[in-house]
Design a protein that fits this description.
alpha+beta, eight-stranded mixed β-sheet, 29 helices, about 25% helix, about 15% strand, globular, binds zinc ion
């Protein structure tokens, strides 16, 4: 940001000691052909501390109880170390992993539908998927019938592949696992009616016979979902640097695994009830921690899961609402980190909304002096600073530098070396707080002006015709009264402006003294300028009459338009120029309908070339087609102009390119395919209302500081970076999260832990410059056990998804997916190697905190973005890619593993919501109603035999046949069923930044097909392995790594 006229050097222009020139991004600046988090460690030379020997801090605060919640569950099997273990058959299989075999699912019968009609369907449906009937009746799950006889399994093996075997549970209940203790009947050894004893090596031969193979249909081609593992992704880079694996160089079976496809007929499957269940993990965490107080007083505490509601009390560390980490105990050395391959990352949501029952952020004002900072590393005063010499000096927890305490800030220390005013000062006792920033932190040393909101409405033919323009104008009349304002202010300081456009742009003078708005047309879009300064941005209240007049007129002025062409980049330019001219920050709300094909800068062509899918050129689909937008984005960031785009497409609009500016400016993207007022109107308006009103900061710059030994190396999110350390955000709202990866550059000291300080300088909606600080202290350890038990899989998936979605810009999807699978296996193999008791390699042993890694990883691999199926429109894939990029942990958790709620189990006499079910077709019942939501989509699935009482209660119609599936909302009826289901829906919507359109589906009707994609434990309708199959393949890779 310094190039943009920030004079104040102290805040941000100074490099953090120890920061080297890190290559930015994946592979872009290195020659390594992969994006792996560890493969590229060649450039991560340990850098010795520039600070010399560190002086010990006086107060290492590790709590003795930090792991109490997990250690409570330790079982007899491996004290001090929770795990879930899954036994499988004998080790030493010569069979290479055969990911290919997963995918050979029965081809959907609708495969040959004409593409044209299909596309039409797709666009009008939410997820733009093929519509088709279930093909699943003959599918895997049906073979799980535990009543099937156990013994005669052998014959199902064919030829030379007898070793395809499935792990089955051997884990006893005493281990505190959440899996069913009993061995699934279907996997029992012949004649073996009793589960094997806990933790023992079981009869492998027997198991082998009884083991379950992959669901391979002979003659089916391998599916694209899981490419065969190839040596060299990590192999070439990693072999030799894994001292913990026996015989390091030869440890990794580097030989490319090819073929490996099973030729056997369908075999017995693992009982899905016996493998780790996300629902069980979520419910157990709720049971244990829901409603409790989570006080952030000790270092390295693992917070409750995002799905567990609790009250957070800031006692010195940032709330998990602001920062969540992949692990709360960092490995002490780079070597150890490399061995485990667990990414070290924090997901930071600096503006997270806090519930009403938690204390709001405190504001500290040091007047003209400004915040107190370490002289050397510029870290801000925080609980991580240690006061010494009677309070005259303090030692920085980040760089160990000893600083003088400014006289105005002096305070005596008590007998334990703590300042007497410790609890009076938020910056000494809290993890999160704000400083009022001085002029030094302002652009050009001038206090910023309040931000502007500019509404820019496409008035071309299709926008007028579908009613969108009228809807927007109507809504804005009331919405403008609800613009964000400072807590103490009565009205919002935000000024507003309006532009309409098709091929040309229309600006409006809304000066309060005018009786009528004045329109000024700019038809030369080549050199965009704003034709008026005075009167374009106005105060909502002063100009209310003129604004309402304009909003009434817009739909009428363009009612008869026949103009179908639009421009897009000039619209952004116009908004940007207006923001620049007003010398403020701003947010553009662009409502746009079509591919901008009119002759103008940033003109786009239709390039939805799905022939590229599954080729090395597929990455092109995720790259913008015009560099114009990158330049524009940069310009927007430099002038703190955030861009939100609401798309209403009827066909391909190149979301990839049109999303460039929103993505770089901290903006949001919304998309309503084939927009129709009656079905999408409310959905869109709810999104708009949320978007306009949400808490937001402008002109922001974020810096993440760490203590000696590690540093932030990679930033993923809706933001822009001009150098390797400063995250530039034209704006950041309460829903945007930035995921930061850390790497070691030295050893971490177990006594001091790993400290993180995130500082965000921004302008609030009132135009005040603020510094928001979040501090978090993590543990570190040289024991793998500590690392593994402090992991948070939900955060891990957030990081892995964002980094994979970034990697596909530069690498073939196949490679990216291989790396993900590989990394999963490495993480779990390292645990097995270092933490689990010695046992047969045939046992699948998962760390307790990471037992959902395989299922979540499989969901990521099956997401539209990584699926590489030509059936999925490119715009849809890109759209999801962009959404995930700015998601927080809660967002990615429900996006990748949706909530499936059995509505028919509602207890109308209780406030409770029925517990969610696992996302599998097996869980659906004919007599049931199920609500499925993932934060973006929402479905209500109606079973054929739903009770008439429920149908009447919810839909106010007598029978199943009378239910109107065209409707996207439920009637507001005064009965307990209706109230309860609407309450559940509202509740789910309130948890997501997106309003989620409700789609009603009936069992056995053709639209039901789109629902299947979200049953993520099953085989994907567009490809992708079932959970069971994926778990097997991961287990196989682990075994290979261990041999
Ligand atoms: Zn320092």
């Amino acid at each position: 940001m310094s190039q943009h006229g920030y004079v104040a050097t102290p805040p941000y222009s100074q490099g953090q000691p120890g920061m080297g020139g890190y290559p930015a991004g994946f592979g872009s600046t290195t020659s390594q052909p992969h994006y792996g988090h560890y493969g590229g460690t060649g450039h991560l030379k340990p850098v010795s501390s520039p600070h010399g020997p560190s002086i010990p801090l006086g107060h290492p605060p590790p709590s003795p109880a930090q792991f109490s919640q997990t250690s409570l569950q330790n079982g007899v099997y491996n004290p001090g170390n929770q795990m879930s273990s899954y036994a499988a058959s004998s080790p030493g299989s010569a069979q290479p992993p055969s990911f290919q075999s997963h995918g050979s699912h029965p081809q959907p019968m609708y495969q040959n539908t004409a593409p044209a009609s299909f596309t039409q369907q797709v666009v009008s449906q939410i997820g733009a998927m093929k519509i088709g009937g279930y093909v699943g009746s003959s599918q895997a799950p049906s073979q799980n019938d535990p009543s099937l006889p156990g013994p005669p399994l052998q014959p199902s093996f064919q030829g030379s592949h007898p070793q395809q075997r499935l792990p089955h549970i051997s884990s006893p209940p005493s281990q505190g696992m959440s899996v069913a203790p009993a061995v699934p009947l279907a996997t029992m050894p012949p004649g073996g009616a009793v589960p094997p004893p806990p933790g023992m090596n079981i009869n492998h031969a027997g198991l082998n016979q009884g083991s379950i193979g992959y669901q391979q249909i002979p003659g089916q081609p391998p599916m694209a979902g899981y490419p065969p593992q190839q040596g060299g992704i990590y192999g070439g880079q990693q072999r030799g640097v894994q001292p913990n694996y026996p015989g390091a160089p030869g440890t990794y079976p580097g030989a490319p695994v090819t073929g490996g496809q099973l030729a056997g007929p369908p075999q017995k499957k693992l009982d899905p009830d016996s493998i780790p269940s996300p629902i069980q993990v979520i419910e157990e965490d709720k049971l244990r921690r829901s409603g409790q107080l989570f006080a952030t007083n000790s270092r390295g505490q693992v917070p409750p899961l995002v799905t567990t509601k609790c009250v957070v009390q800031d006692q010195g560390n940032a709330s998990p609402r602001f920062i969540r980490c992949t692990t709360y105990c960092f490995p002490s050395t780079a070597d150890m980190a490399k061995q485990s391959q667990i990414p070290l990352a924090a997901v930071i949501k600096p503006f997270a909304a806090l519930p009403a029952n938690e204390a709001p952020i405190c504001v500290v004002n040091h007047g003209e002096t400004g915040p107190i900072r370490c002289n050397r590393c510029k870290a801000y005063m925080s609980p991580l600073m240690q006061f010494i010499e009677g309070g005259r000096k303090y030692q920085c927890g980040f760089c160990s530098c000893v600083n003088e305490v400014p006289p105005f800030y002096f305070q005596h220390l008590d007998h334990i070396g703590r300042r007497l005013d410790h609890y009076d000062k938020p910056e000494l006792s809290l993890g999160s707080y704000e400083f009022v920033a001085t002029l030094d932190y302002c652009k050009n040393n001038k206090p910023p002006a309040p931000p502007a909101f500019i509404f820019m409405i496409d008035v071309s033919y299709s926008s007028i015709k579908n009613g969108c323009v009228k809807l927007i104008c109507e809504e804005l009349k009331t919405l403008l009264d609800k613009l964000p304002r400072a807590d103490e202010a009565e009205t919002s300081a935000i000024r507003v402006g309006f532009v309409t456009y098709n091929k040309v742009l229309h600006f409006y003078n809304l000066k309060s003294s005018l009786a009528q708005p004045q329109m000024l047309v700019v038809s030369d879009t080549g050199e965009m300028f704003v034709p008026l300064l005075d009167g374009f941005l106005v105060d909502v209240h002063e100009s209310q009459n003129v604004i309402h007049n304009l909003l009434d007129q817009i739909p009428e002025i363009f009612a008869e338009t026949s103009e179908s062409e639009t421009v897009f980049a000039p619209v952004i330019q116009a908004g940007l120029e207006a923001v620049k001219a007003a010398e403020c920050s701003g947010k553009l709300f662009i409502f746009h309908s079509s591919l901008p094909t009119a002759e103008a800068p940033g003109k786009l062509r239709n390039r939805d070339d799905r022939k590229l899918v599954n080729t090395d050129k597929e990455k092109v689909l995720f790259q913008s087609q015009s560099s114009f937008y990158e330049t524009l984005a940069k310009d927007c960031v430099a002038n703190s102009c955030c861009v939100d785009v609401f798309l209403f497409p009827n066909q391909f609009v190149d979301v990839t390119t049109m999303g460039v500016v929103p993505l770089a400016t901290g903006g949001s993207l919304y998309k309503y395919n084939n927009f129709q007022i009656h079905s999408d109107g409310e959905h869109f308006l709810n999104d708009l209302r949320k978007d306009v009103q949400k808490p937001i900061g402008f002109d922001a710059i974020m810096r993440v500081r760490t203590n000696t030994g590690f540093r932030a190396t990679e930033f993923l999110g809706s933001m822009y970076m001009n150098n390797t350390t400063d995250v530039e955000l034209a704006a950041i709202d309460c829903d945007k999260a930035i995921t930061v990866e850390f790497k070691h550059d030295d050893k971490l000291n177990e006594e001091y832990g790993a400290l993180i300080q995130c500082a965000l300088l921004y302008t609030n909606v009132a135009g005040q410059r603020r510094l928001r600080i979040h501090n978090l202290a993590l543990n570190c350890s040289s024991q793998h056990n500590d690392l593994y038990k402090s992991c948070e899989t939900d955060a891990l998936i957030n990081f892995l998804a964002k980094s994979a979605y970034k990697a596909i810009l530069s690498q073939p999807l196949k490679i990216v997916k291989e790396i993900l699978v590989n990394q999963t296996a490495h993480i779990l193999a390292c645990y097995r190697k270092n933490c689990a008791n010695p046992s047969s390699a045939g046992q699948l042993i998962l760390p307790e905190a990471m037992k959902l890694l395989p299922i979540y990883m499989n969901c990521l691999l099956k997401s539209y973005v990584l699926l590489a199926s030509p059936d999925i429109p490119t715009d849809e894939r890109t759209f999801q890619r962009l959404l995930v990029t700015s998601m927080d942990v809660e967002g990615t958790q429900s996006f990748f593993y949706p909530r499936l709620i059995p509505i028919h189990k509602i207890d109308v006499n209780s406030e409770e919501i029925p517990a969610a079910l696992r996302c599998s077709e097996d869980r659906l019942v004919d007599g049931g109603i199920f609500l499925l939501a993932n934060g973006i989509n929402m479905f209500l699935w109606l079973g054929l035999n739903t009770q008439p009482e429920l149908i009447q209660g919810i839909f106010n119609v007598p029978t199943f046949a009378h239910i109107n599936t065209e409707s996207t909302s439920l009637p507001e009826l005064d009965n307990p069923y209706s109230r309860k289901i609407r309450m559940i829906i509202d509740n789910l919507r309130s948890q997501s930044p997106y309003s989620m359109k409700l789609i009603i589906l009936k069992q056995k009707e053709k639209t039901e097909g789109i629902f299947r994609h979200f049953l993520v434990e099953d085989k994907g309708i567009h490809g992708g392995a079932s959970y069971v199959d994926f778990l097997c393949s991961v287990h196989k890779e682990i075994r290979q790594l261990l041999t």
